[in-house]
Amino acid sequence: MALRQGLDSHIVIIGSGIAGIAAAQKLVKYGFHNVRILEATARSNNIIEIGANWIHGPSEENPVYCLARHYGLLEPEALSPENQAMDIGGHPPWVPNWFSSSGKKLKAEDMNPAVDLFVELLNEASELESRGGEPQASVGDFIRTETRRRAEEQWQGEGAWTRAQRMCLISNLLKVECSVNGSHTMDQVGLGAFGLYKTLPGLDCTFPGGYEGLVRSLMSELPGGLVTYRRPVSCVHWSNTKVAVQPVSVEVEDGERITADHVIVTVPLGYLKMHHSTLFSPPLPLHKLHSVQRMGFGTNNKIFVEFDSPWWDVDCEIIYLVWEDEEDLVDQVADVKRSWIRKLFGFTVLKPTERYGHVLCGWIPGHESEYMETLPEHEVMHAVTQLIRRFTGDPTITPRRMLRSQWFHDPWTCGSYTYPGRGCSAQDLDNLMEPLPTKGSSQSQVLFAGEATHACYYSTVHGALLSGWREADRLISHYSSTGPPEPLWSKL
Ligand SMILES: Cc1cc2nc3c(=O)[nH]c(=O)nc-3n(C[C@H](O)[C@H](O)[C@H](O)COP(=O)(O)OP(=O)(O)OC[C@H]3O[C@@H](n4cnc5c(N)ncnc54)[C@H](O)[C@@H]3O)c2cc1C
């Protein structure tokens, strides 16, 4: 069918996160004029800095970076060739401050051998995917086994105190990785699939005016009224038969049914895990469902805390909190109700100070974070205050105010972002992005976008953006006799 006729087709996009907006933007740009987005919440976007704040790998290959530059949303430093050329392999070279649970400041030079070992192990774990080997089932198992073995070999000459301290530090770094991956423990993150995630060159940068600026700029390219808010979709009715007259319809929570030629589902994987049985009729094919279940979607929350004056060094960019009784390489808390705060691995420092004041962003992943969400704000504030007083040894430090995210209890997200679970492979990501019906039809009734559907940039804004463009391309190709179009961002 010629693209011109296809431009009349009715396309419903579920979800107005970056994936949904990107899909709409590309379709509208190509001339599709019956596109609409149904969004469950009242918000005009969901990625204000309580969620994403960095562009990971800001360089030419990163479409978020290219768009941000195009819209003039970045500062000169982020645009410099030096910044883009820096290949940090996912580990930004931030200036650290280390504090211990007995209130001492630890010296970076004493900590560095443990950091180096940890980074070496993460890099090795990433390489296993291309080698097709999986000596252990999870990244956690691998790191524990290899840390013990190599520490025995490499740190023999060190005193018992130093060796113990380094093991405690590795426990802290395991919690950092839980935050990075959005997992409860690194024992849930599949070792064989860990290397599927790819980093891009460039030193992570932020939007001085907030990530919101990107969403606003993209939205400005859409016709007004294209997004309907407070319209949660309760069911997507699709057809498993080869020929269907009106292939798909979307049922909204108030009972209204909207028919369409195509539906692009961009709901988060956490939502899909919880609601797949009611969201699709007929249900998802088994292989797709199994991948939804196998892939991981955990919680990572931010706790912003503001102070009158800093208790960290002027140049400090990240603060690590090392518990001195965690020699056992632990990344989970045994008694969550009593000790959930132990999972908060530390803080990043919001820079520049002239813009933000003295604000830290605490990071807490896992079930401990999910429990934290249930507590009243003053209890969280109290726990954070006690934590900081203990680690600095200064009983006078008092935060001015606090703000936290609650991603797990957000009914439309049900967590933070995707990681490959134990036993996962590239096939699971292929299954997640595969349209319905999966076999014997070229109809592409129901398409899937969203960060969880990107083969190597899952868990990121650029992954979400590319997944939206990918599904728009799929429809453009479907109606086009000239083959798939050029990527949109190459034209910017
Ligand atoms: C704490 C945190 C920090 C992060 N930091 C970074 C970072 O620094 N850099 C980075 O690149 N990425 C980061 N991310 C990840 C990034 O924010 C996400 O990968 C990205 O925003 C996902 O976009 P999306 O469009 O796939 O999903 P979403 O933005 O979740 O959009 C899905 C939409 O679907 C809607 N929806 C759900 N159910 C329904 C329904 N039934 N009917 C209608 N609508 C529905 C939801 O309300 C939502 O608006 C972070 C995430 C978190 C939580």
From TrEMBL:
Keyword Cytoplasm: yes
Similarity remark: Belongs to the flavin monoamine oxidase family.
Alphabetical keyword list: Cytoplasm, FAD, Flavoprotein, Oxidoreductase
Protein source organism: Merluccius polli (Benguela hake)
Cellular localization per UniProt: Cytoplasm
Cofactor(s) for this UniProt protein: FAD
GO BP of this protein: spermidine catabolic process
InterPro entries recorded: Amino_oxidase, FAD/NAD-bd_sf, Flavin_monoamine_oxidase
A GO term, aspect molecular function: polyamine oxidase activity
Annotated ranges, domain Amine oxidase: 18-476
One Pfam family this sequence matches: Amino_oxidase
One GO cellular component term: cytoplasm
Entry keyword annotation includes Oxidoreductase: yes
Name recorded for this polypeptide: Peroxisomal N(1)-acetyl-spermine/spermidine oxidase
